[in-house]
Each structure stands twice: as C-alpha cells, then as structure tokens.
Amino acid sequence: MNDDLQLLCEIGFASVRRGLRRDASSIFAALSEMRPENACGAIGSALIQVSRGDVTDAIETLGQVEETCQEAVHEAVQIRNMIAELAEARAA
Q1: Domain-by-domain residue ranges, the chain?
Q2: Fold of 3-91
Q3: So which domain of life are we looking at (predicted)?
C-alpha cells in the first residue's frame, strides 16, 4: 500500500474512532473507488457499520472482499471473523 493510501486509511479509521461516521464513510467510499482491489475501503465501511450496530451488514460487507479484492483480504477475513465471534458471544 502506498503512503497516500495508508494515510487516507488512517484518517478514516481515526474518524470512525471519533464518531465522525459521515466523514469516514466518504473517505472509505473514495478508497473503494480509487483502489477497488484493496480491501481497506471495505474494512473501513464495515467498521462504520459495526459502530452503528449493523453487525450483520458488516459481516456481509467483509464477506464480499474475498470475491472482489486482491489486497488486504487476509486482514478483512480476520476482522470479519472477530466481528462474527463477538456477535455470537453477545447472542449467547
């Protein structure tokens, strides 16, 4: 991942942490459009969905990464699995 892409990802993740979902959503949508082969945009979008309580949507978003992306797929799968495990633990 080049430095500019990494910086945008970090800004997006910081925006999610600060509750600036609209700003983060714009950043991750742009990343997905600029670099559709990289899962960073989908990962960020899924984190926004989790922050809204849309866990099922987040798992679905990250599930699509394996079919559509070539970069950061392993990370997306790990995050999807963690979200799914947490959702199962809360449901139990």
Answers
A1: 3-91
A2: 1.25.40
A3: Bacteria
pLDDT digits (tens, 9 = 90+) for 39-76: 999 999 999 999 999 999 999 999 999 999 999 999 99
**Angle, alpha carbons 74-78-84 (nearest 5°):** 145
d(CA 13, CA 81): 19
Greatest Cα-to-Cα distance within the chain, rounded to the nearest angstrom: 42
pLDDT at 44: 98
Contact 52, 45 (CB under 8 A): no
